[in-house]
Design brief:
mainly alpha; 4 helices
Amino acid sequence: MTVDISAALRPLREALLEQAGADARSRIADAEADAVRTLDAAKREADGIRTAARRDGEADARALQTADLARARRQARASVLAAQRSGYEALRACVADTLRTGAAAEELRNALVARVRAVLGPEARTVDHPSGGVVGEVPGRRVDCSVDALVDRVLSAESGVAAGLWSP
Protein backbone atom coordinates (compact mmCIF):
# COMPACT_ATOMS: atom_id res chain seq x y z
CA MET A 1 0.00 0.00 0.00
CA THR A 2 1.28 3.28 -0.93
CA VAL A 3 0.42 6.23 1.05
CA ASP A 4 -0.14 9.46 -0.78
CA ILE A 5 2.06 11.78 1.32
CA SER A 6 0.60 14.81 -0.32
CA ALA A 7 -2.88 13.77 0.64
CA ALA A 8 -1.77 12.83 4.11
CA LEU A 9 -0.11 16.18 4.69
CA ARG A 10 -2.99 18.18 3.21
CA PRO A 11 -4.80 18.65 6.57
CA LEU A 12 -1.53 19.73 8.15
CA ARG A 13 -0.77 22.06 5.28
CA GLU A 14 -4.29 23.53 5.46
CA ALA A 15 -3.99 23.94 9.22
CA LEU A 16 -0.58 25.60 8.84
CA LEU A 17 -1.90 27.86 6.07
CA GLU A 18 -4.91 28.72 8.19
CA GLN A 19 -2.65 29.42 11.18
CA ALA A 20 -0.27 31.49 8.99
CA GLY A 21 -3.24 33.42 7.58
CA ALA A 22 -4.60 34.03 11.08
CA ASP A 23 -1.13 35.12 12.22
CA ALA A 24 -0.81 37.43 9.22
CA ARG A 25 -4.27 38.91 9.80
CA SER A 26 -3.45 39.41 13.50
CA ARG A 27 -0.12 41.04 12.67
CA ILE A 28 -1.77 43.25 10.05
CA ALA A 29 -4.46 44.26 12.56
CA ASP A 30 -1.77 44.97 15.18
CA ALA A 31 0.25 46.97 12.64
CA GLU A 32 -2.84 48.92 11.58
CA ALA A 33 -3.72 49.64 15.23
CA ASP A 34 -0.10 50.64 15.90
CA ALA A 35 -0.16 52.88 12.81
CA VAL A 36 -3.39 54.52 14.05
CA ARG A 37 -1.84 55.06 17.50
CA THR A 38 1.36 56.43 15.95
CA LEU A 39 -0.63 58.70 13.64
CA ASP A 40 -2.79 59.92 16.56
CA ALA A 41 0.33 60.59 18.65
CA ALA A 42 1.93 62.44 15.73
CA LYS A 43 -1.23 64.52 15.28
CA ARG A 44 -1.28 65.37 19.00
CA GLU A 45 2.41 66.29 18.88
CA ALA A 46 1.87 68.41 15.75
CA ASP A 47 -1.08 70.13 17.46
CA GLY A 48 1.10 70.81 20.50
CA ILE A 49 3.92 72.16 18.33
CA ARG A 50 1.46 74.31 16.40
CA THR A 51 -0.08 75.64 19.64
CA ALA A 52 3.35 76.39 21.12
CA ALA A 53 4.48 78.04 17.88
CA ARG A 54 1.32 80.15 17.79
CA ARG A 55 1.78 81.14 21.44
CA ASP A 56 5.48 81.93 20.86
CA GLY A 57 4.63 83.84 17.68
CA GLU A 58 1.98 85.86 19.49
CA ALA A 59 4.43 86.63 22.31
CA ASP A 60 7.07 87.65 19.77
CA ALA A 61 4.52 89.79 17.96
CA ARG A 62 3.51 91.48 21.23
CA ALA A 63 7.16 92.17 22.03
CA LEU A 64 7.76 93.58 18.55
CA GLN A 65 4.59 95.64 18.78
CA THR A 66 5.66 97.02 22.16
CA ALA A 67 9.11 97.88 20.79
CA ASP A 68 7.60 99.47 17.67
CA LEU A 69 5.18 101.50 19.78
CA ALA A 70 7.98 102.69 22.07
CA ARG A 71 10.10 103.62 19.05
CA ALA A 72 7.17 105.49 17.47
CA ARG A 73 6.54 107.35 20.74
CA ARG A 74 10.21 108.33 20.97
CA GLN A 75 10.19 109.52 17.37
CA ALA A 76 6.97 111.46 17.92
CA ARG A 77 8.39 113.02 21.09
CA ALA A 78 11.60 113.93 19.24
CA SER A 79 9.53 115.54 16.48
CA VAL A 80 7.49 117.51 19.00
CA LEU A 81 10.63 118.64 20.82
CA ALA A 82 12.29 119.63 17.53
CA ALA A 83 9.22 121.63 16.53
CA GLN A 84 9.09 123.28 19.96
CA ARG A 85 12.80 124.06 19.77
CA SER A 86 12.38 125.55 16.31
CA GLY A 87 9.40 127.62 17.49
CA TYR A 88 11.32 128.74 20.57
CA GLU A 89 14.35 129.77 18.50
CA ALA A 90 12.14 131.68 16.04
CA LEU A 91 10.34 133.44 18.92
CA ARG A 92 13.64 134.22 20.63
CA ALA A 93 15.11 135.68 17.42
CA CYS A 94 11.98 137.75 16.76
CA VAL A 95 11.87 139.16 20.31
CA ALA A 96 15.61 139.93 20.30
CA ASP A 97 15.39 141.61 16.89
CA THR A 98 12.42 143.70 18.01
CA LEU A 99 14.26 144.81 21.16
CA ARG A 100 17.41 145.68 19.19
CA THR A 101 15.79 147.50 16.27
CA GLY A 102 12.32 148.47 17.42
CA ALA A 103 11.06 152.01 17.92
CA ALA A 104 11.70 151.80 21.67
CA ALA A 105 15.31 150.51 21.35
CA GLU A 106 16.83 153.74 22.73
CA GLU A 107 14.32 153.86 25.60
CA LEU A 108 15.17 150.23 26.39
CA ARG A 109 18.90 151.02 26.43
CA ASN A 110 18.35 153.93 28.83
CA ALA A 111 16.17 151.75 31.08
CA LEU A 112 18.86 149.03 31.10
CA VAL A 113 21.57 151.55 32.05
CA ALA A 114 19.31 152.71 34.90
CA ARG A 115 18.80 149.09 35.99
CA VAL A 116 22.55 148.42 35.99
CA ARG A 117 23.15 151.53 38.14
CA ALA A 118 20.30 150.55 40.47
CA VAL A 119 21.91 147.13 41.03
CA LEU A 120 25.60 148.10 41.04
CA GLY A 121 25.42 151.73 42.16
CA PRO A 122 25.92 155.05 40.36
CA GLU A 123 29.66 154.46 39.90
CA ALA A 124 28.97 151.42 37.62
CA ARG A 125 30.61 151.52 34.22
CA THR A 126 28.23 150.52 31.40
CA VAL A 127 29.26 149.23 27.99
CA ASP A 128 27.00 148.60 25.01
CA HIS A 129 26.76 144.87 24.24
CA PRO A 130 27.16 143.68 20.60
CA SER A 131 23.74 141.97 20.71
CA GLY A 132 22.10 145.11 22.06
CA GLY A 133 21.53 146.23 25.61
CA VAL A 134 24.33 146.93 28.08
CA VAL A 135 26.71 145.25 30.49
CA GLY A 136 27.55 146.99 33.75
CA GLU A 137 30.62 146.48 35.92
CA VAL A 138 32.10 147.59 39.20
CA PRO A 139 35.19 145.99 40.72
CA GLY A 140 34.26 142.40 41.59
CA ARG A 141 30.73 142.50 40.17
CA ARG A 142 29.13 142.40 36.75
CA VAL A 143 25.52 142.69 35.54
CA ASP A 144 24.58 141.44 32.07
CA CYS A 145 21.63 143.37 30.67
CA SER A 146 22.31 142.42 27.07
CA VAL A 147 19.34 141.78 24.81
CA ASP A 148 20.34 138.11 24.53
CA ALA A 149 20.47 137.71 28.32
CA LEU A 150 17.16 139.54 28.77
CA VAL A 151 15.39 137.45 26.13
CA ASP A 152 16.78 134.24 27.64
CA ARG A 153 15.56 135.27 31.10
CA VAL A 154 12.11 136.21 29.87
CA LEU A 155 11.65 133.06 27.81
CA SER A 156 13.30 130.67 30.27
CA ALA A 157 11.38 127.61 31.32
CA GLU A 158 11.33 128.89 34.92
CA SER A 159 9.35 131.96 33.91
CA GLY A 160 6.71 129.86 32.20
CA VAL A 161 6.39 132.28 29.28
CA ALA A 162 7.69 129.86 26.66
CA ALA A 163 6.20 126.84 28.41
CA GLY A 164 2.75 128.32 27.88
CA LEU A 165 3.29 128.07 24.14
CA TRP A 166 3.32 124.26 24.29
CA SER A 167 0.30 123.84 26.55
CA PRO A 168 -3.07 122.92 25.03
